[in-house]
């Protein structure tokens, strides 16, 4: 069945692009946009990250902290952040601990080929650590609108 709106967000601990440990408990009392994406520097993932970058000030004003998560390494995240001037941390989930906990690993089909991968999904977590919204049909170039439209 997977996670549902109203469920407590699974606790996590992962390293960001600089090797700093980031935990959900670090954001107690804050709203978090936790977005899972398949791979750094691919076209759709770049579109999504740049949409969040371009609207980062608005998201901060609305009280949201943004965290991106993919199975890429810290070094890959460093390059992605540098290349696109991303103002928010990217968490390296190379062992798929968060990806599994949030249920975003699954079967995907691209160009008729079926394989397992990260299902692009965003979780909006409220100040009490409860999942307020799950966006599973992410529109990468309108992602901020999806986040704000669903939670305002």
Main features:
globular, alpha+beta, 152 residues, single chain, two-stranded antiparallel ribbon, Glutaredoxin, seven-stranded mixed sheet, 5 helices
What does this protein structure show overall?
The chain has helices at about 45-55, 55-60, 75-85, 95-100, 145-150, and strands at about 15, 20-25, 30-35, 65-70, 90, 105-110, 115-120, 120-125, 130-135. It is an alpha+beta fold and about 150 residues long. The protein has a single domain, classed as Glutaredoxin (3-Layer(aba) Sandwich). The strands form 2 sheets. The protein has a 7-stranded mixed β-sheet. A hairpin with a 4-residue loop joins strand 1 (about 15) and strand 2. The longest helix has 12 residues, at about 45-55. The radius of gyration is 14 Å and the shape is globular. The mean pLDDT is about 95. It holds the Pfam family AhpC-TSA. Monomer. It catalyses: a hydroperoxide + [thioredoxin]-dithiol = an alcohol + [thioredoxin]-disulfide + H2O. Keywords: Antioxidant, Disulfide bond, Oxidoreductase, Peroxidase, Redox-active center.
Task: State the distance separating the first and last CA atoms.
Answer: 26 Å
Strand/helix succession: EEEHHEHEHEEEEH
User: Structurally, how many domains make up the residues?
Assistant: 1
Radius of gyration: 14 Å
Q: Give the overall shape, derived from the CA principal axes.
A: globular
Task: Tell me how many strands there are.
Answer: 9
Number of helices: 5
**Helix- and strand-based class?**
alpha+beta
Q: Determine the CATH topology.
A: Glutaredoxin
Provide the β-strand percentage band: 25-35%
Residue stretches low in confidence (pLDDT < 50, at least 5 long) are none
- The strand line-up of the biggest sheet is 2-1-5-4-3-8-9
Portion of residues in helices? 25-40%
Which architecture would the CATH scheme give at its second level?
A: 3-Layer(aba) Sandwich
CATH superfamily: Glutaredoxin
Largest β-sheet summary: 7 strands, mixed
Global mean pLDDT: 95
User: What is the highest CATH level, the class?
Assistant: Alpha Beta
